[in-house]
Amino acid sequence: MTGEMIDADGTRIWVERRGEGPDVLLVAGLGDPAEAWRAQLDGLSDYYRVTAFDNRGAGRTPLPDEPLTVAMMADDAAAVLRALDVRAAHVAGFSGGSLIAQELTLRHPELVRSLVLMSTFSRPDPYFRRMTGFWHWMVDRAPDERAMLEAFYLWIYTRRAHADGTVDRLIDEALAFPHPQSAEAFQSQLAPFATHETLDRLPGITAPTLVLAGELDLATPPHLGRQVAEAIPGAVFEVLPGEAHQPFQEVPDLFNARVDRFWREIDGRG
């Protein structure tokens, strides 16, 4: 993929763009650069102008001097859209990126034409806090980067993906990526995601919203996504049978077709 570093309200952010049509902004989650959305940049750009970017501390966008917050990253996403002269976009975020997308919609509603939240939540429960606490020290204490990814991906991908070689391929790609995330950057992103709360503010979202959950997701199980959907007026909630935390990577054709149908309904197209 090719991209460029842009000035987004004084912050240098790496952006990938593909295609022509209605604007779509893709917001990645913990540790992931824009390349996490490769199957969407490839698969949706025949019908949309698709933009993905590196959040602060991931890929080519550096960490700020001050502590990261979800609100800061949401403002970055807004600055990206404005720097690219996008008046409003269909916004899709997964995991930590879905939290950024929630905040983007709450803080800059005029920029969000519709909202897709994949593997999302609005208030951490005790299991989630303990899981993310383990991730925090795991990245320091794993014997090497491969071992860290092998452990981390146990929460992220299906048993199917671990058995059929998908996870091994993703780990090889992550290890070969020329802009790896440091342990400090991983922990700096994890901290605001692990304490994120929007449940009481979600009724303020007015954009058409689709909430998707993987049936087998260990990190953000379906009941957390259902809670989000029930708090957003008119939101649609769907569970993807047999899928885990990142079906947009494991079953991209299924994911792409579902979000395309949602966006076509919003755009009034057949």
Automatic annotation (TrEMBL):
Sequence intervals crossing the membrane: none
InterPro entries: AB_hydrolase, AB_hydrolase_1, AB_hydrolase_fold
Organism domain of life: Bacteria
Domain AB hydrolase-1: 24-245
Keyword vocabulary terms for this entry: Acyltransferase, Hydrolase, Transferase
A Gene Ontology molecular function term of the record: hydrolase activity
Protein name: Putative hydrolase or acyltransferase of alpha/beta superfamily
